[in-house]
Structures are given as structure tokens and as C-alpha cells.
């Protein structure tokens, strides 16, 4: 509760400040449009996980994604970020994209504009503090409950694209994993953005469903990408640490190199990602 009160106080303080912002869309930056699709075309999905990080479920989701060489978007709550900064650092180190999902999952769409802006800024700053990087790219904002109001424009002014979803397996309703598998199997389509949760409740069925579905999708020819952004080509926004020639990387390690993310299949030290495809798996552009 002390953490929540501290963040809430920061929100109140920020609400009294008039923020100076670059106009949305300036210099190819984000616009106030809402994203409903992946960056790439074809048999592509984007996986997104909301309401974490959770000390019980986020590590299991991260393990599963690493095992299957998939990157995703984690839409983080500021209150959870303050409690579990180590998990934020792991999300970032493993090359996933982070998304601002408000401080406490309040309905920002119904708030006064400056109050909503203050909440979004407080969450973004909490994510960056937890990650230990004041310049960490936070490319997305997702409005709790999909209640957008003025938030897409606010997010654009802060350099974020408003991220929606197009497939919701309703893993928040307590359904068992086999029901979630059925919903995911019947609902996905090329370029879909899939909403699930790694926080906010019992996510055992979610983890179990994806443990079945991700390999099944991959066997059927699906690939995974990040969602699109608005206002121009997706900018290089790698979060995984840069590859270093004399650094030892155990299997499963992720690095960024020349605007892409790579994962080591086994221990490697001097082989660069672009010159050792037998060691490094290319997981795609940042």
C-alpha cells in the first residue's frame, strides 16, 4: 500500500504540471491512431501480456517465451513495477517490448486530460526507474479496459503508440486452459494482436494454454512479431543488452546487435550474431 500511495502522490503532483510535448506525428513520431495489427503481414501474431509483472506468473511466461524463441509485449502497471523491479529488468534484458498500462489499472479514458497524462507519465517513469535506464524505449501505451478517451493523443505526445488488441481469449474469467486453447485456436488470424495476462490473478491456465499453443502455432507456420507503431517505420528500440565480443553468453541469453535481437542456442563468447547462425537465432528487428 505504501508503494501505491507513493505513486498516487506522484500522479497528483504531476497533474498540476503542464507538460511540453512534441506534436503528435512530428518528425515521423507516433500519431493518435490506435494500433490493431502486427508490424509484418502474413501468418503473423503478436502476443501481449497485461497487468504484471507478477512474481509468480511473469517468470513462467518469460521462461516459456525464451524456450520457444518468441518475443512479446508486456503491458506493465506502475504499482507492480515498483514492487518487482527485478522482473522489469528481466523483461527488458530478454528483448521484449514494454508498454505503459497505467499506475493501478484505473479508467484513464474517463479522467480529466491532465490527470490521465500524469498517470501515463508516472507509469512510464516507474518502468524506466525499475529498468535502470532513464531512456528506455517504451513504444506502447494500452488503456485499461480499452477506455481510450484522450489517451491515444496523450500517448503520442509522449512518444508512444496506443496499442489495442483484436483477439481476447478472456483468460481473466477463470476458464481452464483447455477452454482458453479452444478460444485461441478459433479466434486467431493473420496480423492479430492477442491479449492475455501475466498478472492480476491466477494465470496458471494462461501459461498452460500457451505452453500448448505456441509450439502448435509454430508447427503450423505461424511466426511472431511485435505490434505495429504509428507515424512511420518502426524505430530501432532494442531493450536487450548490446552484444559484446568478449562476453560469455550461456544458452538462452538474448542480445541486441545492429537493430535486431538474437538468442544464443548454447554457450558462446566471441562469435558475433550475424556471423554465427549456428549459435545465434535471429528473433527479428527491434
Describe the structure.
Helix 5 links the parallel strand 4 and strand 5. Strands 1, 2, 3, 4, 5, 6, 7 and 8 form an 8-stranded parallel β-sheet that branches. The protein is built from 8 helices and 11 strands. The chain has 2 domains: 27-224, Glycoside hydrolase/deacetylase (TIM Barrel, Alpha-Beta Barrel), CATH 3.20.20; 240-286, Carbohydrate-binding module superfamily 5/12 (Seminal Fluid Protein  PDC-109 (Domain B)), CATH 2.10.10.20. 45% of the residues are buried. Mean pLDDT is 90; it is low at 1-27. The chain is of the alpha/beta class.
Question: How are the secondary structure elements laid out?
Answer:
Blueprint: H1 2-15, E1 34-35, E2 44-52, H2 58-67, E3 73-76, H3 78-83, H4 85-93, E4 97-100, H5 113-131, E5 140-141, H6 151-157, E6 161-163, H7 177-187, E7 192-197, H8 204-219, E8 223-224, E9 254-257, E10 260-264, E11 280-285
Parallel strand pairs: 1-6, 2-3, 2-7, 2-8, 3-4, 4-5, 5-6
Antiparallel strand pairs: 9-10, 10-11
Amino acid at each position: 500500500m505504501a508503494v501505491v500511495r507513493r505513486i498516487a502522490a506522484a500522479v497528483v503532483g504531476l497533474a498540476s504540471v503542464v507538460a511540453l510535448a512534441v506534436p503528435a506525428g512530428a518528425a515521423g513520431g507516433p500519431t493518435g491512431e490506435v494500433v490493431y495489427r502486427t508490424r509484418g503481414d502474413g501468418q503473423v501474431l503478436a502476443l501481449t501480456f497485461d497487468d504484471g509483472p507478477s512474481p509468480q506468473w511473469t517468470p513462467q511466461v518469460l521462461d516459456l517465451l525464451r524456450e520457444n524463441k518468441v518475443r512479446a509485449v508486456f503491458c506493465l502497471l506502475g504499482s507492480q513495477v515498483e514492487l518487482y523491479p527485478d522482473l522489469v529488468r528481466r523483461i527488458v534484458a530478454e528483448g521484449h517490448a514494454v508498454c505503459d498500462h497505467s499506475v493501478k489499472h484505473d479508467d484513464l479514458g474517463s479522467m480529466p486530460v491532465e490527470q490521465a497524462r500524469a498517470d501515463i507519465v508516472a507509469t512510464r517513469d516507474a518502468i524506466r526507474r525499475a529498468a535502470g535506464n532513464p531512456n528506455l524505449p517504451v513504444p506502447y501505451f494500452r488503456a485499461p479496459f480499452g477506455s481510450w478517451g484522450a489517451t491515444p493523443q496523450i500517448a503520442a505526445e509522449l512518444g508512444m503508440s496506443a496499442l489495442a488488441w483484436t483477439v481476447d481469449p478472456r483468460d481473466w474469467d477463470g476458464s481452464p486452459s483447455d477452454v482458453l486453447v479452444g478460444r485461441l485456436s478459433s479466434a486467431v488470424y493473420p496480423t492479430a494482436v492477442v491479449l492475455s495476462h501475466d498478472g492480476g490473478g491466477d494465470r496458471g491456465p494462461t501459461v498452460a494454454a500457451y505452453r500448448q499453443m505456441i509450439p502448435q502455432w509454430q508447427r503450423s507456420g505461424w511466426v511472431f512479431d511485435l505490434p505495429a507503431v504509428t507515424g512511420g517505420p518502426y524505430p530501432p528500440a532494442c531493450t536487450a543488452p548490446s552484444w559484446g565480443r568478449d562476453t560469455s553468453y550461456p544458452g538462452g541469453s538474448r542480445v541486441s546487435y545492429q537493430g535486431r535481437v538474437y538468442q544464443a542456442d548454447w554457450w558462446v563468447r566471441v562469435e558475433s550474431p550475424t556471423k554465427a547462425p549456428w549459435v545465434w537465432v535471429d528473433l527479428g528487428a527491434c
